[in-house]
From TrEMBL:
Domain Caspase family p20: 18-133
Ranges for region Disordered: 157-177
Assigned GO CC terms: extracellular region
Protein name: Caspase family p20 domain-containing protein
Signal peptide, first to last residue: none
Family assignment from sequence similarity: Belongs to the peptidase C14A family.
Superkingdom classification of source: Eukaryota
Gene3D superfamilies found in the cross-reference section: 3.40.50.1460, 3.90.660.10
Length: 416
């Protein structure tokens, strides 16, 4: 089991701290609604039993000094008294950041003041325009059809100038209530800004190192707290490192892993110029009388993209016996052979402008893991889970079923 869970805890007696900073700019009429926002936020966070700190109209230095004071007094010296920190800033803004009484302050400059409040959530809510781009807007009235019927183009922010500096800023003033076209949309990124998302890497070894797992891939080494492996089972068995000792110590697991088998397959993608006519009534067809070709699909038609503006494309799959016989041949060397068989099946097929070839050594699960468990826990501390359609069955439903099994297993082990 985990000794340390990757969740935020609220200890008895702890409270949250919310900081609300509102820039009124000497009673700027375009900012009059922000006072109502402050009142509503205060009522809301009071119900949640948060400690509330409010400030108005400061220079950049005054704001930075105040942030430093909050961080030092509450989030460092008394950090054990708080379970979370929320900072709400309401102002004018532009592409660079938020407008204070005299200068711009960026979000990065705001965030870095609170890095000492570790292992606890820090939420920053910024109410300000970030540019002057044209944006589709929808009427925000109570009419049930307003979102569908009244979509129009307008400037979401009105360009003006900070009366106490030379910075261009944008206000969110508008007589009628409007909603941006991307309202009600939540976007979740896999990484933080400027961070790398590691894809298309080849895992070479897995080693358990005390409370962590050391993974070495084609791009280097990294430590992780938990590892979920979903690659084809033969590739799991081929991993180096002490994961092999772990597998060997579980004889039943090892046998069941070794019994998992896959079919293999070559594929071609054929691409044509827009306007090319493919005179076939079907969008997909299984082929039974050719030793090489098993399936052909007019891919754009299958996806409902049958248009003269879009060049048609064809996907070709080979049969399993043919693929197994030629498995060690390079995919590019197989392209002309597969094309010659395809012309036998479809003699009127036009010449494509491009052909791409692909080989799946592990295409579909032929025989899955005994009992189809969805996933198995290879190690609990640190956690290593083996999953994928090799532990269910070979189709999209099998992948989803395995993912749900992993979710349930993690919840149980982490007591979520």
């Amino acid at each position: 089991m985990f000794q340390k869970l990757d969740i935020y805890k609220k200890e008895p007696g702890q409270k949250g701290l919310v900081l609300i900073v509102n820039f009124m700019f000497r009673g700027d009429k375009r900012r009059k609604g922000s006072n109502t926002d402050v009142e509503n936020l205060t009522k809301f966070f009071s119900k949640l039993q948060y400690q509330i700190e409010c400030r108005y109209d400061m220079t950049k230095k005054e704001l930075q000094d105040y942030f430093q004071e909050i961080e030092s007094e509450y989030l460092t010296e008394k950090s054990e008294d708080y379970h979370s920190f929320i900072c709400v800033i309401m102002s004018h803004g532009n592409e660079k950041g938020l407008i204070t009484k005299d200068k711009i302050i960026t979000v990065d400059e705001i965030k870095k003041r609170f890095t000492g409040f570790t292992d606890k959530p820090k939420l920053f809510l910024i109410q300000a325009c970030r540019g002057n781009a044209l944006q589709e807007m929808a009427d925000g009235s109570d009419s049930p059809n307003s979102m569908q019927d009244e979509i129009l183009e307008r400037r979401s922010c009105v360009q003006s100038r900070n009366p106490e500096s030379e910075e261009q800023l944008y206000t969110d003033s508008e007589d009628r209530p409007k909603l941006p076209k991307d309202a009600d949309i939540i976007v979740a990124y896999a990484t933080t800004s400027d961070s790398t998302l590691n894809t298309d890497t080849v895992i070479q070894s897995v080693d358990i190192d005390k409370d962590h797992i050391k993974v070495e891939d084609s791009k280097g080494q990294r430590l992780c707290d938990a590892l979920i492996l979903t690659m084809p089972v033969p590739q799991i068995l081929a991993l180096k490192g002490n994961i092999q000792q772990l597998i060997n110590s579980k004889s039943d697991v090892k046998k069941n892993l070794e019994d998992v088998s896959y079919s293999s397959r070559f594929a071609l993608g054929l691409f044509y110029k827009p306007g090319t006519q493919l005179n076939y009534s079907w969008s997909g067809k299984y082929i039974t009388d050719n030793p090489c070709i098993r399936f052909v699909a007019i891919d754009n038609k299958k996806r409902g993209l049958d248009s003269s503006d879009i060049g048609p494309s064809i996907v070709v799959h080979t049969s399993v016996p043919f693929s197994l016989k030629n498995l060690e041949t390079e995919k590019e060397d197989m392209r002309d052979i597969i094309m010659s068989h395809l012309k036998q099946v479809l003699p009127d097929l036009p010449e494509p402008v491009e052909v791409k070839s692909h080989k799946w050594r592990y295409s579909q699960v032929h025989k899955g893991y005994e009992g189809s468990p969805g996933c198995i826990v290879l190690n609990e501390k640190p956690l290593i889970i083996l999953a994928g359609d090799g532990f269910t069955h070979s189709n999209l439903d099998g992948c989803i079923s395995s993912a749900l099994s992993v979710q349930q297993t993690v919840k149980e082990l982490c007591k979520l």
